[in-house]
Amino acid sequence: MEPINIVKSVYAPLDRKNVDTDQIISKEFLKRIERTGFGQFVFYHWRFNENGQPNEDFVLNKPAYSGAEILVAQDNFGCGSSREHAPWAILDYGFRVVIAPSFADIFHNNCFKNGILPIRLTEAECDELLAKGIEQAQEIEVNLEAQTVTTGYGKTYTFNIDPYYKKMLLNGWDEISLTFQYEDHIKAYEEKRLVFE
After folding, report:
1. Residues near 136 by beta carbon (within 8 Å), at least 6 away in sequence
2. Which residues face 141 on adjacent strands?
3. DSSP states of 19-74
4. If you ran DSSP here, which 8-state letter would residue 152 be given?
């Protein structure tokens, strides 16, 4: 995984509550066996009309939000089924950070395991970000080390994060990478164990 510390980008304002994993990545796109390639299908039924043409009213199809690495949404983001494809699709599309007042627990944990920083801000703070971002594309800076979100309109919000997940993201570690940090200890234990067999 790529380390995350500072992410500075325009953000995509997705002013919707209860965005579930089937809306993030619909079931018909789950046939792939790789962890990559899902980004093209993220929010597919919102991004495209029934004829397959882009829905010009959907935020991700608007040129002003092109290349956004930060997604801002409403309550209960990532609810529904526990499919890990949802964070895979979000990351593959290019989002490194998702900001919302609340997340479904499994989706929240899957974000950390796949190198995405999920940030909980208050409902009022998310409402302000959404309103400003819908009015005009805005750039913000997320600083994981400082645990801040700094806007271009003079506001700085702070967020909490579990120190374990913070360390993982700052170092770009998944759980396997974390295990390898103790490789010398594991090797010493194995060698000691062999002596007693």
Report:
1. 64
2. 8, 150
3. -BHHHHS-GGGTT--SSSS-GGGTTHHHHB-TTS-B-TTSGGGSGGGTT--EEE--
4. T
Confidence band for 97, pLDDT divided at 50, 70 and 90: very high
Q: Are 11 and 61 in contact (CB under 8 A)?
A: no
Read off the pLDDT of residues 142-179 as tens digits, 9 standing for 90 and up: 999 999 999 999 999 999 999 999 999 999 987 766 66
| H or E segment to which residue 196 belongs | none
**Around Cβ 6, how many Cβ atoms within 10 Å?**
12
Nearest alpha-carbon partner for 113 in 178, 33, 30, 38: 178
Packing angle, helices 105-113 and 85-93, rounded to 10: 50
- Domain 6-172, CATH number (from 3.30.70.360, 3.40.50.2000, 3.20.19.10, 1.20.1250.20): 3.20.19.10
> Which amino acid belongs to residue 138?
Q
Answer whether 71's CB lies under 8 Å from 96's CB: no
The span from the CA of 155 to the CA of 72, in Å, is: 16
Q: In whole angstroms, how far apart are CA 97 and each of 12, 29, 170, 178?
A: 11, 23, 13, 21
Beta-bridge partners for 11: 70
